[in-house]
């Protein structure tokens, strides 16, 4: 199956908010509960409220662990799809730097380095008392 990327607002237009809410409720990311909470409880309000964040499903950067291992997307394919979205946006509004941060975990920092992101700093979040490693990449 070829994965497609679709903006959450388009999904709501097509399926209706209640249907999309039920679908998002099945998302699972035990390795990163923040992402699971975001997708289940915040993504719709963030997108429909004040446009603070727009989620693309493929979503926040995390795969859906509710799927069988055989049906899960590979991280580099997920990154390719996310980059395609950014390239389309770049065509419309310009820009060319991707910024992201992640928890200070070797599996995540080595994943982003493999995807050609450069670590440039870190930040401490007083919201959750965690250190986040900051990365950037030109595209
Ligand atoms: C980041 C991600 C897309 C990379 O995908 P991938 O390259 O295909 O790598 P995998 O999913 O196979 O993960 C590699 C290993 O790291 C572990 N891992 C992944 N995310 C982790 C996390 N947040 N915390 C701890 N371990 C994690 C996996 O369990 C796996 O361990 P294993 O080999 O012992 O099974 C994917 O791991 C993911 O969705 N992680 C959860 C969400 C997340 O943390 N996103 C980053 C937000 S900044």
Q: How many helices in DSSP terms?
A: 5
- Mean pLDDT comes to 85
Give helix % range: 40-55%
* Biggest sheet: strand arrangement: 3-5-4
The assigned structural class equals alpha+beta
Structure description:
The chain is of the alpha+beta class and 139 residues long. It folds into two domains: 93 residues, no CATH class; 44 residues. It is 43% helix and 20% strand. The protein has a three-stranded antiparallel β-sheet with strand order 3-5-4, covered by helices on one side. β4 and β5 form a beta hairpin. α1 packs across α2. It is globular and about 40 Å long. The two termini are 27 Å apart.
Task: Describe this protein with a few key phrases.
binds coenzyme A; globular; 139 residues; alpha+beta; 2 domains
